[in-house]
Inverse folding.
């Protein structure tokens, strides 16, 4: 195979990454797309490839023998069905995060990939961002000593717009936003420490979004649109204060990882600013990032080595491409996996473990903070 012929399931916002795969003179080309919405299919044709095979039934896409690989960018609760069907049809699969909305769902996908011998890659694009790759390099250099404590705060400014105006706000589609949004952060905690979580306890609640508005209400037709702080006129227009919303909008998770590492994770969807703040503390030093300043600060303590003489500030270089330059890189890595069997920075096992922690933390929240052990059973073990 010299060129990977790709199909996309789910032509919504995330399907924009297909532009990184549609390169008729390069090593991949997008030849098919499936979505239940005709409108979304038309938009996809306009944006990516007007000659693409388009269908409202993803099974028709999977029947095409000349498609080698499928990217799954449908809503989370459909990843399991779509990924398994694609693998069974003999396609390699790139699946957006979260891999599935249950641990059992992840295990079924991984088992199908192993049985069919097809590649499965999870869309953890944070692993491809300059900032988190640099933080990984700093930790691996040993300058922080043995990691013992991690503190992550995710301020999801615009969280209302992206998560409460459509399917994301209902637990039947996501389990909770700890999987949806948090699966990235939980994965980065696992990846940077090199350890998986053993147990969690968590507290959280729905304090700002949700309410008693009818499920059918949309922003453009709402009487309160002139005064509502969450009025949203385009694309994501379902009322953010509708009855069916049942996923927590602020969460605090405490995690115990292998190797005696403790981690805490805060996610809040009604903050004014958008940023992730990560702190890693080891026996020799402390590292903290600022996404807003594009900087990583490393402070060292007395260690009887040259490193105690200086603290270091890393400045991120400018990147181009979505998500801090990560999207073109992760798309290229999927092609390298399919064509050259080059292992990407992510693994199905890591996808499964972040879902396991997100699900356990959600269970803990909904059981009043109960400590939950993380199911470690998986057929794949690489982090
Ligand atoms: N890695 C990242 O940075 C990142 C960023 C955004 C979204 N995502 C992930 O991408 C996925 C899609 O998110 P989105 O924001 O594009 O959502 P979206 O709602 O904009 O798009 C989902 C699309 O799937 C379609 N769809 C629904 N049911 C379908 C079915 N049965 N068959 C085919 N298509 C169907 C919808 O019509 C819609 O067009 C989610 O899992 C999300 O977590 C990842």
């Amino acid at each position: 195979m010299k060129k990977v012929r790709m199909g996309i399931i789910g032509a919504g916002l995330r399907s924009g990454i297909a532009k990184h795969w549609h390169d008729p003179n390069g090593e991949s080309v997008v030849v098919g797309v499936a979505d239940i919405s005709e409108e979304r299919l038309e938009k996809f044709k306009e944006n990516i490839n007007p000659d693409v095979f388009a269908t409202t039934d993803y099974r028709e896409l999977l029947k095409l023998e000349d498609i080698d690989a499928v990217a799954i960018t449908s809503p989370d609760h459909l990843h399991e069905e779509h990924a398994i069907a694609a693998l069974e049809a003999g396609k390699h699969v790139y699946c957006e995060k979260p891999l599935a909305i249950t641990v059992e769902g992840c295990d079924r996908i991984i088992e199908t990939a192993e049985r069919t011998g097809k590649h499965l890659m999870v869309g953890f694009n944070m692993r491809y961002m300059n900032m988190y790759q640099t933080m990984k390099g700093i930790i691996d250099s040993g300058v922080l000593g043995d990691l013992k404590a991690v503190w992550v705060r995710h301020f999801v400014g615009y969280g209302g717009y992206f998560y409460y105006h459509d399917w994301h706000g209902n637990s039947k589609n996501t389990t909770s936003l700890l999987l949806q949004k948090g699966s990235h952060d939980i994965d980065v905690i696992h990846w940077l420490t090199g350890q998986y979580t053993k147990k969690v306890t968590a507290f959280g609640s729905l304090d700002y979004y949700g309410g008693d508005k009818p499920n059918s209400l949309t922003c453009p037709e709402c009487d309160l649109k002139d005064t509502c702080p969450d009025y949203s006129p385009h694309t994501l227009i379902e009322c953010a204060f509708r009855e069916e919303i049942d996923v927590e909008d602020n969460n605090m998770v405490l995690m115990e990882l292998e190797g005696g590492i403790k981690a805490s994770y805060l996610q809040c969807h009604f903050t004014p600013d958008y940023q992730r703040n990560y702190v890693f503390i080891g026996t020799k030093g402390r590292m903290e990032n600022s996404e807003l300043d594009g900087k990583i600060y490393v402070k060292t303590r007395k260690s009887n080595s040259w490193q105690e003489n200086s603290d270091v500030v890393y400045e991120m270089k400018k990147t181009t491409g979505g998500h801090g330059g990560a999207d073109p890189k992760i798309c290229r890595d999927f092609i390298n996996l399919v064509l050259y069997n080059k292992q990407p920075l992510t693994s199905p096992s890591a996808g499964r473990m972040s879902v396991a922690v997100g699900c356990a933390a959600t269970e803990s929240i909904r059981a009043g903070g109960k400590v939950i052990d993380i199911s470690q059973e998986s057929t794949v073990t690489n982090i």
Summary: Residues 322-340 form the longest helix (19 residues). Residues 11 and 40 are 6 Å apart (CA to CA). The chain has twelve helices and 15 strands.
